[in-house]
């Protein structure tokens, strides 16, 4: 979150237990692309724009492994902690706090 932006605010979307382990929930936004909220095996929660930086695939439909998610379209590994594609692939999707 950016404290200088008045549009940034915390929003309760669900309990951690409502997000499947090694899975995701999609959160609709009134404008723009939805947000994907992920939970890994260590109960860490991450939020990314629900769009792969490669072909725009829905990351919420991908497979979570460790701190990454595999895009369902082309199997790109995207870091849940930073939203960036793992090498040798390139590109990032926005991450949310």
TrEMBL record:
Gene3D superfamilies reported in the protein's UniProt record: Rieske [2Fe-2S] iron-sulphur domain (2.102.10.10)
Keyword Nuclease: no
Keyword Transport recorded: no
Tree of life domain: Bacteria
Rieske domain location: 10-97
UniProt keyword annotations, A-Z: 2Fe-2S, Iron, Iron-sulfur, Metal-binding, Oxidoreductase
GO function term, MF aspect, one: oxidoreductase activity
Name under which the protein is recorded: Nitrite reductase (NAD(P)H) small subunit
Species of origin: Variovorax beijingensis
